[in-house]
Amino acid sequence: LAELYPSSEYIKPALFNLALCYKNTGDTDKAEESYRRYFELTGKGDDAIGALWEIFNIQKTRGDLSGALKTLTQIYGESEGREDGLEAMYYMGEMNYDNRQPDEARDYWERLAQQKPASSAWRLQGLVKLGEIYEGEKNYQEAARVYADIAKNSTKPDVARAAAERARSLAAMARPAAEPAPSAEEAAQPAAPAKKPAARKKAVSKKAGAKPSVKELPGMGAKPAAEEGN
Fold it and tell me: What's the mean pLDDT when you consider all of the chain?
């Protein structure tokens, strides 16, 4: 039908069913080709995006990293603000991470963190991955900020509570022991530039030749305490 009647109104469902048949019989090359033809005929829309996701899954299973990333980029471009675009960006990061390219993965997930809506499940999952990366680098301040973001924007109360607790714990690890840990909301705010301490005037001893005593400021130079259980 697809070959004999290319202009038929039934060509699109025929191509999609043909792709499914090829996929079920293990002929992934022809399945990918049929999904691609279906996409080209369908244009933008949920059905067309669905065909691209099928192509991506075939390429991913085959181990075609380059082709899969190209398809994800196409999905992102065709999505026009739909959730598929955020999902595609998340998988771009995951595929790079699984293929031992953590810097590229971090870049995709950091870009995903800037997307809207803030409560998107894919955005929040990307933040979880970023938090794991920051913790592995012992960058506790950034990790705390990420978890505070999750706590603020998750629509699941149990997830929000767990993320808020994690943010407080990491914020405490990021600060000297003498300073109080900030709330989850405070941890989510960008860190303000540190002010230089005002120079202290040296005390002049009445006794000639005596040096003024110097006391260390409390909390300065203290290493963050390692969190138990990690």
Answer: 80
